[in-house]
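#dry-run=false #mode=assembly
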Amino acid sequence: MPQSKSVRLASVAVAALTFVATLSVTALVVSPAASVEAGGASPQTFTRRLTPDQYKTIIADVFGKDIRIGGRFDPGLRVDGLLEVGAGEVSVSATGMEQYDAMARSIANQIIDDKHRRLLISCEPKANDKPDAECATQFLGTVGKLLFRRPLTSEELNLHVEAAAAAALVEKDFYKGLALSLAGMLSQPQFLFRHEVLEADPDRKGAYRLDAYSKASRLSFLLWNSGPDERLLEAAENGEMSTQKGLTRQVERMVRSPRLASGVRAFFSDMFHFDQFDGLIKDTQIYPKFSSQVAVDSRDQTLRTVVDHLLVRKGDYRDIFTTKKTFMTKALAAVYKVPFGMNLPNGSPDAWMPYEFSEDDPRAGILTHISFVALHSHPGRSSPTLRGKALREIMLCQKVPSPPGDVDFTLVQDTASEEYKTARARLTAHSTEPACAGCHKITDPIGLALENFNGGGEWQTTENGATIDTSGALDGVSFSGGEGLGEAVRNNDAVASCLVNRMAAYALGKKPGPVKSQWVSVLESKFADSGYLVQDLMKEIAVSPELFRVSSSNLDELTMLMPRHRPDKEGE
Amino acid sequence: MPFKNYENAPGIFGAKVNSLAVALTVSALCFAGTHAVAMDKRSYVIEWFSQASHSTDGDCPAGINPPTRQQYYESFELLGFEPEEVEEQMKKYAQGGMPAANAKNILRMRGRIDGEPVNGFVHPWTVADPNLNSVKSDYALGFNLDGQVSDASFTEPMTNEKGIDNQLFRAMGCIEQFRGTYDHPPTFWAFIWGSMKETTPAWLMTVEGKDLGSDGPVTITFDRALEHITFGPTGNAVSHITYRADPDPRSHHEFAGKIENNVLSITDPGELRLLLDTLSFPEFVLFNAHLRMTIEADGSLKGLIGGYQPLWDYYFGIAQGGLAYEGMIINDAPGIYHSLKRHADGNPDPETGEFTSISAAYRIDAVPAFVVPAEAAAYQNISSR
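#status=ok
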């Protein structure tokens, strides 16, 4: 359908803003490295692209949960085990920018529709068919502060108010003008990227620290997985964030907030590689119960379990590998083969209920959840190797080398083998290849303990008629089955250390280097002293000056500004 | 060995060593009666239900009944239309629009009471009998319901049992849409069950006994669920889904039964009533209900249920779609009524002596499920292995 002249003209305004946004995205991505090459004496900047969850959470926080967000996000890049670290190394593709633009327009149009206008736009224009600089300034200034996570500069605000006015003139509609300007704002890098600004650290000569607004952002994304709220921005504005007392006061407020659960969910979703659920495929002929609903629910089940254990029950982090307590939906209950009792009408979406596996139930801990055993399996078969690799890399922060490119997998893939009836038998035969033996030695004794759970997460005791042997070992500790493995992981020293390192990296946006290692050691010690309470660890990180310190003379810190391309590889 | 796989599987159908825990947990949850002693209990949802046909070459020596459109030639003739008038009406029927509507209305109103047209589907006895062909075969799936072996009875092709009563198969088995085998159900039933199973509350079975892994007496309970069957990505019922038993006593029936050689059966036949689909088969009723289901290696049940089914229940189930259904899948609804009457063999009317029900058998498959009382709004589950 041909566009009207007015629509085309109005689009010019937002297109101009989008063009600026695109240029700015490029500039932001290249500027740090360029700055480093130029000598790096002046304050550096660090950017991280918003994750899809962060984007959605911010929109919900600022405009309400009923604002629909369509479109696709550019894929993330996992670096050093975290997407949040990779977020500092990614840009926006041309297609991604198109998607951001489309999402922005859709969001902006919802905000000015009859349902939301009165609620979200606190001022009224003098005339609906004309620009109104006063009302536009009020709305765009307020919203812009929450979206950019700092007050807009007068230049920025003027640019958006003028864009809104230009579009309103063409469209003869104040609100359409406002929407086009807001759409432009939502497409700008100041929103799409967490742009951190450094300032000289008055306490340490030659060192830098994040400025108050950047500190506020680091806190809010760490603790709430969203942008700062008005109180936090106010604290940044009035200098409260620049004092340890003020910072601690804000952190304590944020930790007390129920929104902490969002932060915990986001961190563990990242750490546990739950983004892989987006591409998870199962052969439904082999695993007929594994529906898309089961995939969604299983991810949520583990996150609910973790949040409940860590925040509600204030449990020892290590016990997530042994806890019998979890949550259940009807779809999950079918896979776990347990009853689910809840009165719901036909067609109701899956509801959750607390659930506790009995003492004699072989399920215990998140390693026996569908989210682990199914996610780290193949579409049509389990994989002790993938499970072992995932456990080492995700839970223990140990790197497992990728397989050589010329490995013959025929033997392990032949699940109907008459000679090698179980995965253990197939892998034992496969591992006689010297090139394979080394890696399989560190993955398979772990993964084979989970062989009672098939690739769809269901319980099995035999394979091709042969009884499954679930004996295993982890770093010299022998055990049997998923419950035994969970106990061994729980008692492994690396498990707590891994969490601390991951959380520190998550907060910093980079893997802690040598300079930060002392800080991390202290965190590990305090984490142990606290009884491995994750809430305390998050608080400890959040109030720590180390979270905000950057030294320009330290190469370790500067490497975060250099693009790297080391995506994690998966393989068997 | 019966339930071999289940003994290795987790879940409520656990190994014998856990039967006490199972009973303690499940008996408290399940709708069926509780017991003071430890009992083994397994529940199922019926995922497939269709008339049991055993069609073979040559079992309709008079021929398969002609398709509906051809049958309508005879319908017009029976109404007294001259051959050229029949041709004219059938042309209209094929023409569409108003001419077809007029022809169809004649067919719809082909019953006659005091010479006046009446709806032939609602008053099938007022329509002249087209004498549909019926099965003449030695074999039929089902049960010996009356304990007799007679000329009218069949031999069971799977068990070789004599005296099988399945006159429903005899009445319907020469209509193309009702022909089928144990493994390939009749088209009509594939259609009607395919429609009903998506929207109709599921049927549940619970088997309870001292040790379901061994031969011995059991109690077989039927219930209707509040939910319809949950199907998986492949279109089959998902096993181990939890269903709430409808507290409506009309669909709750208990039978004494047994497990013998991996076969579950009713030993004390009685009356079974299960509410079904309000728009087609409102209620499925069997008098003298018999059951024979094999316990499969994966824990599912496959087999037959049979008994005497009220004529009217069956007839209205297939006639409720009127001319539309008749044209698509039924063949000749009033003709079927006459055929059913002709072969009816159960529940004679005490006054007239006319049989009011017909011996029948249905193929049913069931997959493991959990059955909980409907009043359990939400409870903390403790699983047991």
